[in-house]
Amino acid sequence: MNKRSGISLFEIIISVGLTAIIVMVLSRFSGTVSSIGTVINQRLQVQQDLEQALQGMVTEIRSAGPSAFGGYTLESASTSSIVFYSDVERDGAMERVRYYFGTSTLQKGVTEPTSSTPPLYVTSTEAIKITVP
């Protein structure tokens, strides 16, 4: 009886093929997990940005008061904007604050009162910044 020991070429090809399939499946799985993690991180960042912006808005709205010329606290409110007066710069003067939705962002515009008597709010001097990108 002649016994052969060792591994045949066919067994080696099958082993290499199975290993390659397992490596491909694992790499696809890790890529999917990585992309899901990225999406979740982006959503959490957006949620955190919104929370910060809304917290600032709430503080400013709660401290709202009459304008520098004695007008109402709330100038206007609509589905896409709100305009009110508040001392957002903590300088003793009531600024005109406007929150509104831009194309895809929440923006804030602040207008300082003029030094004239009575003070006026010239909207062309409004300083605009993006609150939530």
Count the E strands.
5
Strand order in the largest sheet: 1-2-3-4-5
Separation of termini? 80 Å
Overall geometry: rod-shaped
| Computed CA radius of gyration, to the nearest angstrom | 31 Å
Low-confidence stretches: none
Overall number of domains: 2
Describe the SSE topology:
Layout: H1 9-62, E1 74-77, E2 81-86, E3 95-101, E4 106-111, E5 127-132
Antiparallel strand pairs: 1-2, 2-3, 3-4, 4-5
Which features characterize this protein?
133 residues; alpha+beta; 2 domains; 5-stranded antiparallel sheet; 1 helix; 22% strand; rod-shaped
Tell me what the structure shows.
With 133 residues, this protein is of the alpha+beta class. The protein folds into two domains: 7-62; 64-133, no CATH class. 41% of the residues lie in helices and 22% in strands. It has one helix at 9-62; strands spanning 74-77, 81-86, 95-101, 106-111, 127-132. It has a five-stranded antiparallel β-sheet with strand order 1-2-3-4-5. The longest helix is centred in the N-terminal third of the chain and has 54 residues, at 9-62. The radius of gyration is 31 Å and the shape is rod-shaped. The model has no long low-confidence stretch (mean pLDDT 90).
